[in-house]
Design goal:
Rossmann fold; 17 strands; 6-stranded mixed β-sheet; Structural Genomics Hypothetical 15.5 Kd Protein In mrcA-pckA Intergenic Region, Chain A; alpha/beta; 5-stranded mixed β-sheet; Tyrosyl-Transfer RNA Synthetase
Length: 427
């Protein structure tokens, strides 16, 4: 046993931790406790059809990290070849094919994100394009295709739906995807002694293709564990979707501030399960957090802990601390004077920003910052005590923005409860 931030950590076996965190959907293992014997080598493939991984992929990475923590060797596979084909699973029509150049960029981006998120956790990166690009069609049909029966393949749900009545049909290219993924398992079994594949629940059929291929081609038993789809418990829909689309790990697609805000705004109902999936906090830590959260739900301790921990893992501790401070300042009543120039730099990516000189008329500032449609409306807001500078309500007699209104050359002007703009001081 050892101490943690919140109490005493009681160690769990791999199978116990996977079950506690909710990481097991399906498995070929007849007894999950078999995971607790000798450590093995697993592989987990990631799709490269997008130029960034999203938080759905992040759940898979956290799944992997549990195995690594318990001493397993990890092979992370970039789908440089399979992404050129496109997985038909969960699709009602064929997706647009992307160029080899686009996929190569996507793979490179994903590898950077993986290295950052896995940190000190050791793993080996491979790319299935390396062992498929030079294979000719006769080798593929003789060495791989001969081991697959058409009957179970066409009965898989996603294929049956596509070729059934009112289905859009499926090309031979897409139909072959599952054979390529099966070939990945065979290659990794032969070259890296991989005996376990991890995947998402939507990959169950494709994972079984690998299990069957290794059994038929090598006479060996290998296994699969799939991760359940993460569901938003409040809406019943796939977790990680917003009105703006997916929540990405690349800050150019989802800013660090918006990333943090996504997590801090989740519902109470899902907070505990998201802490288990998306952080490495121990069972004892999470139980302590949820106990404190239940005593004062308005403090949103579970959400704040989740937002900080996930943002730290994806974007680093410094950025996590900065957006945490910004969030506490804008919405939690923390003193604006604690903000630094770097904090305001972070805020510039989120708020409309204008530049003014000291002494500028406040009514004009409100118009320029889109906080009022006209100077007459701006004056009404000012007279109605609806305007705040750096969290403080303006006195009625104040009519200009002055030097002492700025912190590190910036100030935040707010109208009402949550309409904000950033003002930079021009010297």
């Amino acid at each position: 046993m050892r101490s943690t931030k919140y109490g005493i950590l009681i160690s769990m076996t791999l199978s116990e931790e996977l079950q506690w965190r909710g990481f097991i959907q399906q498995t070929t293992l007849d007894d999950i406790s078999k995971l607790d014997g000798d450590t093995q080598t697993f592989y987990h493939g990631f799709d490269a059809s997008a130029d960034s991984q999203a938080i759905g992929n992040l759940a898979a990475m956290m799944f992997d990290k549990v195995f690594i923590k318990h001493g397993w060797k990890a092979i992370l596979l970039a789908g440089g070849a399979t992404s050129l084909i496109g997985d038909p699973g969960g699709k009602d029509k064929e997706r647009l094919m992307q160029t080899t150049e686009t996929i190569a960029v996507n793979v490179a981006n994903a590898e950077k994100q993986l290295k950052k998120i896995f940190g000190d956790s050791e793993f080996t990166l491979v790319n299935n394009l390396d062992w498929t690009k030079d294979m000719n069609v006769l080798d593929f049909l003789r060495d791989i295709g001969k081991h697959f029966s058409m009957t179970p393949l066409v009965q898989r749900d996603y294929i049956a739906q596509r070729i059934g009545e009112n289905g859009s049909g499926i090309s031979y290219t897409e139909f072959s995807y599952t054979l390529l993924q099966g070939m990945d398992y065979l290659y990794l079994y032969d070259n890296y002694n991989v005996t376990m594949q991890l995947g998402g629940s939507d990959q169950w059929g494709n994972c079984l293709s690998g299990v069957e291929l290794v059994r038929k081609a090598r006479g060996a038993e290998v296994n699969v564990i799939t991760l359940p789809l993460i569901i938003n418990k409040a809406t019943g829909k796939k977790f990680g979707k917003t009105e703006d689309g997916a929540v990405w790990l690349d800050e150019s697609k989802t800013s660090v501030y918006k990333f943090y805000q996504f997590w801090i705004n989740i519902d109470d109902e899902g907070a505990e399960s998201y802490l288990k999936v998306y952080t490495e906090l121990s069972k004892e830590d999470i139980e302590e957090i949820m106990s404190s959260h239940a005593e004062a739900r308005s403090n949103r301790l579970a959400q704040k802990t989740l937002a900080y921990e996930v943002t730290k893992n994806v974007h680093g501790e410094e950025r996590a601390q900065s957006v945490q401070k910004l969030s506490e300042t804008l919405f939690g009543g923390q003193d604006y004077k604690l903000l630094t120039e770097n904090d305001f730099k972070e805020l510039k990516t989120e708020l409309l920003t204008i530049s003014v000189q000291a002494g500028t008329e406040l009514a004009q500032v409100l118009v320029d910052a889109d906080l009022a449609s006209s100077k007459s409306e701006a004056r009404r807001f000012l007279q109605g005590n609806a305007i705040y500078i750096n969290g403080s309500q303006l006195p009625l007699e104040k009519s200009t923005l002055d030097n002492d209104d700025f912190i590190a050359g910036h100030c935040v002007i707010r109208r009402g409860k949550n309409v904000n703009a950033l003002v930079e001081l021009v010297k």
